[in-house]
């Protein structure tokens, strides 16, 4: 399939069908290693470079979405960065005003940028991540978590949450998110919804054995851990007794769920829960 798209820069109907098929398959994290091992990261980067001549209008964003899916996996990030994916993403011209629309590709480009950037760089590079963009990522999380399938416009809630967790390693971004008028209300709404999500799904973690739900619980606890690292925000977590009961259960639980696709920079459920309790009790 990849070879057909790679063979030239011309558009044809088969290319449209193939790119849609690859896009759908790449949304399954379990398949990402297969895509990596068969050379897709390099090809996808090239597809983005030639997308305006190679794909029809309704498929123009498909290579970007595929790259986004690949970048949700640590090995995908490594492979994409080897082929200059971040530089290619930075070169995509977008109008700043359209980031008001959560359906627009702008938000996906912003999330890709975060995913492809090392945490150590994010910690010292606040200026790249405006309150406007962060607010849109938070709103995407809210829209997703409100949906029965935890999805909005094709994005599962774990996708924007993973990005938020990575951004919250930057103390300045975290602080700004909870104090800036543009983001404060949406951030507090998100925290409330995530508390409800965790209370609903964590007790079922060893029953449903749903990889995506389990991973989402992991991401949420990582987010709460990062928030609880700051004394002024600990009450956001500590004041919810039902949530604290879940956190205590997770800390004591013999079940130590570790998602093999979980970013290496994240803590496990048990580790996050213990760190939260340590912060709350300090």
UniProtKB/TrEMBL annotation:
Taxonomy, superkingdom: Eukaryota
Designated name of the protein: Uncharacterized protein
Source organism (scientific name): Rotaria magnacalcarata
Lineage, uppermost ranks: Eukaryota, Metazoa, Spiralia, Gnathifera, Rotifera
């Amino acid at each position: 399939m990849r070879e057909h798209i790679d063979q030239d820069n011309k558009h044809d109907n088969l290319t449209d069908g193939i790119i849609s098929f690859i896009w759908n398959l790449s949304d399954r994290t379990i398949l990402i290693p297969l895509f990596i091992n068969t050379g897709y990261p390099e090809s996808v980067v090239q597809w983005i470079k030639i997308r305006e001549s190679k794909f029809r209008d309704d498929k123009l964003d498909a290579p970007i979405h595929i790259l986004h899916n690949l970048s949700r996996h640590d090995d995908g990030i490594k492979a994409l960065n080897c082929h200059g994916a971040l530089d290619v993403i930075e070169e995509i011209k977008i109008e700043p005003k359209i980031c008001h629309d959560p359906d627009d590709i702008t938000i996906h480009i912003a999330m890709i940028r975060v995913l492809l950037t090392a945490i150590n760089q994010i910690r010292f590079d606040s200026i790249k991540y405006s309150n406007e963009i962060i607010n849109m990522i938070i709103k995407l999380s809210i829209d997703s978590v409100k949906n029965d399938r935890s999805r909005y416009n094709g994005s599962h809630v774990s996708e924007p949450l993973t990005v938020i967790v990575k951004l919250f390693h930057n103390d300045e971004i975290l602080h700004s998110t909870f104090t800036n008028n543009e983001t404060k209300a949406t951030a507090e709404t998100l925290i409330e919804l995530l508390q409800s999500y965790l209370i609903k799904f964590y007790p079922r973690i060893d029953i449903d054995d749903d990889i995506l739900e389990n991973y989402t619980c992991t991401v949420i606890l990582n987010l709460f851990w990062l928030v609880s690292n700051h004394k002024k925000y600990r009450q956001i977590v500590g004041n919810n007794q039902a949530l604290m009961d879940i956190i205590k259960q997770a800390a004591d639980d013999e079940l130590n769920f570790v998602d093999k696709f979980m970013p290496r920079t994240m803590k496990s459920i048990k580790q996050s829960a213990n760190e939260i309790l340590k912060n709350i009790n300090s």
